[in-house]
């Protein structure tokens, strides 16, 4: 299995440089992770749609075997917004138990809900010892400017003052369209634990600009269709759904760019993109399709996506995988 070099540093503290005009005595938490992190699916029972916790240990082992060193729990792929607060807590606890056993970094998404509940989840996550928090904005009372969004994250930071905090920028779902460079500068000023952005958008120029702001901030790009371009621009961290089913391809695209094999990286990128396009057009969404394919690729039954999302049955997943294989869209990688 082809793997890329992954560097995972523990959380540490650093003082702001005095030249920033910010109080240099303020200690800020950071999370240094390079390489690919997988936004894990939440396994549900096919009959009751209750969380199937029995699948999580096997899932963690699969991640480690695949060369993935970190997971995002309860994100959009994990259907966190379909779960109750109690479910989100218990799913995180299950993953934290496996993370300690398998030495996985764990980021958890705690936003997209009432602020009081988001703070409750942040506090709980910190008590569990997560590596980092990820937070969506309020999805009804949407922020209208950088200061308002940074102030929102400050509430979350106050609830978990010792855990690195990332903003989840995914405007195609949240409809929160904002200059991320301006926001990041404001967040640096107002949010003590601000550690960076999960950038799920196709504006790679802006993503690259975020890297220039501070060397100790992290940018995780969430668009697997542009992995080769991201890495060529110096972005060395990603959180992409395809890392669940196709971890070899995701990591190989990065490693080929790093070693200068641009043509090979582009070939792999085109193969991956064609596969994702086929999945999306066949079942109406590549996230639900990838979740359904996990049983065939990783031998882990993820169940169905919770309503009102598209239902991808076992029969549909089998037909989809047969088509992917017949078209030879994902040939085996050279070892």
TrEMBL record:
Subcellular location: Cytoplasm
Domain of life: Eukaryota
GO CC terms of this entry: cytoplasm
Active-site residues, record numbering mapped to chain: 168, 198
Keyword annotations: Carbohydrate metabolism, Cytoplasm, Lyase, Schiff base
Pathway in which this enzyme or protein is active: Amino-sugar metabolism; N-acetylneuraminate degradation
SMART domains membership: DHDPS
Catalysis: reaction(s): aceneuramate = aldehydo-N-acetyl-D-mannosamine + pyruvate
InterPro entries, per database record: Aldolase_TIM, DapA-like
EC number per UniProt: 4.1.3.3
Residue sites binding pyruvate per the record: 239
Subunit and interaction comment: Homotetramer.
Family, as annotated: Belongs to the DapA family. NanA subfamily.
Protein name per its UniProtKB record: N-acetylneuraminate lyase
